[in-house]
Specification:
Radius of gyration: 24 Å
Shape: globular
Structural class: alpha/beta
Strand content: 25-35%
Distance between the termini: 31 Å
CATH topology of the largest domain: Rossmann fold
Strand order of the largest sheet: 6-7-8-3-9-10
Number of domains: 2
């Protein structure tokens, strides 16, 4: 499946929130939809879900106008909305029935996801009796009910410990493998890098970049090299490289130990590798430099880190 977001505009009063945004989401590749608070992510998703109606533009699925009623959609909103005093199984069954399942199928789907998140002991307890992390797992479970064709997840990692985060990532990976459309929004860039193949960055209602994450990283790396040497100061490494290859620029790698080398017109990667092989250094890491998604986000949007 391919979802096309084409020239979407949306205003509230005289203020235009979305300025003709366009991007694509394809099945088999989770897409990270990123932006600062107020960038337009939620408005875009609500237009897609037909909660809001866009002023102009269209959503197409496989070339045809997208109608929410024609597909099973799982949605985890950033603002959680389950019932604290209702029993877990009862309300998940209720949500599944609201999406078209009969009672038996709804209860079956609810229990499958309760068990998937190892919460069987809590199925007949009110939601408020669960810890914050377990409540979050139930919130996530409701998005997976009835095996949706399209999965939209807004800040799903909030409240999850590393073990449960991995369980959730496994569930998302299975949906991607089975050809579902997955749209994933989070400020936790490390998780986005682990889960998503594609990213779209929206800022002030406009799309700044969109595409394959690995390709974006390589392009933003500008063919620079990343070198990390054990037991040698970064300044000494830079000085030695500049002596061997005059004109090479070296800067410390701020995200970790090591240096970034700009060898434009001074040395090829193979020449640098040959030089390092003849040195007495213990090389911990060497290869093309690729900025992290957080670095890309900050450099593109500006301001503080997400």
């Amino acid at each position: 499946m391919k979802l096309e977001v084409k020239d979407i505009r949306k205003s509230f009063g005289e203020r235009e929130i979305l300025h003709g945004i366009s991007f694509e989401v394809v099945s088999g590749k989770a897409m990270g939809f990123l932006g600062r608070n107020g960038a337009g992510k939620s408005t875009t998703i609500r237009c897609l879900m037909d909660v809001f109606h866009q002023d102009s533009g269209e959503f197409l699925l496989d070339g045809k106008p997208f109608k929410t009623g024609d597909y099973r959609i799982g949605y985890l909103p950033e603002e959680r909305g389950m019932y604290a005093k209702n029993k877990v199984l009862n309300q998940l069954t209720y949500f599944a029935m609201l999406r078209g399942a009969d009672k038996a199928s709804a209860e079956k789907s609810a229990m499958e996801w309760i068990d998937f998140f190892n919460l069987g002991d809590y199925a007949k307890r009110p939601l408020e009796h669960l810890s914050k992390g377990n409540q979050q797992k139930i919130q996530i479970a409701q998005a997976f009910l009835n095996d949706p064709d399209i999965l939209i997840l807004d800040e799903p990692f909030s409240g999850l410990d590393p073990v449960n985060a991995q369980v959730f990532k496994n569930a998302v990976a299975d949906f991607v493998k089975r050809g579902k459309l997955v749209i994933f929004s989070s400020h936790q860039m490390g998780y986005v890098e682990e889960v998503c193949d594609d990213v779209t960055l929206i800022h002030d209602g406009s799309i700044l970049l969109s595409g394959d994450l690995d390709e974006i990283k390589r392009a933003r790396g500008e063919n620079k090299l990343l070198l990390e040497v054990d037991a040698v100061a970064d300044e000494e490494v830079i000085q030695a490289i500049q002596t061997a290859f005059p004109g090479t620029q070296g800067t410390p790698y701020l995200a970790d130990k090591g240096v970034i080398l700009d060898t434009h017109n001074t040395a090829t990667q193979q020449q640098m590798l040959t030089y390092l092989a003849g040195s007495n250094w213990t090389i911990a890491r060497f290869g093309l430099y690729e900025p992290s998604l957080n670095d890309i986000f900050v450099s593109t949007v500006g301001g503080e880190k997400a």
